[in-house]
Predict the 3D structure of the following.
Amino acid sequence: MKHKQGRETWKSRVGVILAVTGSAVGLGNFLRFPGLAAKYGGGAFMIPYVVAFLLIGLPIAWVEWSMGRFGGARGYNSAPGVFRAVCGKRWASYLAVLGPLIPVMIYMYYVFVEAWCLGYAWNYLTGGLRLGADPKKYEAFFHDFVGFNENGSLFIGDGNQLLIFLAICFVLNFLLIYRGLNKGIEWFCKFAMPALVICALIVLVRVLTLGTPNPELPDQSLVNGLGAMWNPTKPDQNLAQALANPEIWLAAAGQIFFSLSVGFGIVITYSSYLRKDDDVALSALTASAGNGFCEVVLGGLITIPAAFVFLGMPFVEDPPGTFGMGFVSLPNVFNQMPAGTFFGFLFFFLLFLAAVTSSLSMLQPAIALFEEGLGIGRKASVAMLGFMTFMGAMFIVFFSRGFQALDTVDFWVGNVCIYLMATVQVIIFGWVLGLKRGMAELDRGAEIRIPRIVGFIIKYVSPVYLLGIFVLWMVYNLPERIRAVGDIEKGQPPVVALSLALIVTVLIFYVLIVNRAVNRWDEQEATETEVSP
Amino acid sequence: MTPIGWVIMVLATGGMTGLLAWCIYKVVSTPGSAEHLHSQADIETPDVEEH
């Protein structure tokens, strides 16, 4: 009996490790990270990345987990509600309006990329991706498949194959979130995500044994490919020049936020459902470590070295969009592998499952706000959110030329808005909730002791770091970004301006919902005050 | 691949692997951790009970 109990404990602990680390795996690890690393100079990008991981990623993960649990214990589940509980002020809810907005807007393009993964898995299964040895064919396939060349091309002719996969993703996500199938999501994390990691490890072994596949191109070797990823200096740029660009620091921090799912209200909402003595310290650290491993070790050693070996330096220096790395270079790697079609299918299908788990978590913060703000049930909230995200996703899908709409929303929401929200959160934790109460909340039920220096980092270092980089970025890059609004190609619609209009429209909508929620909470508090003696 | 490139690669990949290994060790070696650790995936939201 004792032996059996021991086995059950061991099994449950392994299950916890798989669930916690598996939940951290997503598209950001294998697709977004390599794209950004390539864009910002490989090894040079790793310096702000690691700094961001230590000074803002981990601290803010702990801040969100503990603030969410704090708000949940007081009856709030949405980020605006949690902010009200933490600050004790009604105006604080408006500061959290970006909390539910960010994941919903990210979902609008995330589901598009999710459909790419499903579509690639299907094409591996049906032979559509048996394109031979010419790397350019994979690039052409990718561009045609996602409508990279022309706006609206996915809605005409043969381009509508992707729309079918998009419809499947949309229906699957909303069916799961509508029925609240958390057990199914948990199953994905416990079994599908470890399978994805094992698959990635196999691909990694293949990449690290590539050598010099084409003797006619001796420069395109694995060692030089690793150099393309990890060397901090490039022929046209030294390390100091790379690090002097504020955008690299903003992009690294944005990637940390994106892949750790911190800074945008998801963790706050989920942790609000925890019991008051549940651990948040080791949970957050394990999830962050699992994410970091998948991103740096697997993502960093596979995509860029493989892209360099098969496609050469020009492709690494000028990839076809942030996500082009994963959808062009990886199929080339699979093409060079024994049973490459099988592994290609497996990899993209598992990546699709990883994307499903991530996209489902993006919907819960808005559902919590709709329920609290409008007093409606889960079904009505899901229906409302389904309509909103469908319209937004159609916008992103229609304006697919050069991924202009996707890039604009990703930059302003997936970077800038997350930055603002993270800054507000860390200031509220350190200066409004107060370090003493905040760290006590973090320590409650903790399976590890958080070093006290983390409190100092949260209160002083993280806000200064976030604000400093943000101001620098504004000074150096905002004029260019503003110019891009009016920089319209001849005969093309003003996609950047339209994308910003979409963001502003959704923002106004969320401010109105938060306002409604604040009024409802005021009424509830007034009623409770009247009832209590 | 330059020497500094090798150093960055070893530090970054080794650091992340070491951190994950330490976390797994803590989860496995701490009594009761299985009951108190959570991820987004295993947190039940009470509003699903309206079905």
User: Anything to note?
Assistant: The CA atoms of residues 27 and 34 of chain B lie 7 Å apart. The interface with chain A takes residues 1-2, 4-6, 8-9, 12-13, 15-17, 19-20, 22-24, 26-28, 30, 33-34, 36-48, 50-51 of chain B (CB under 8 Å).
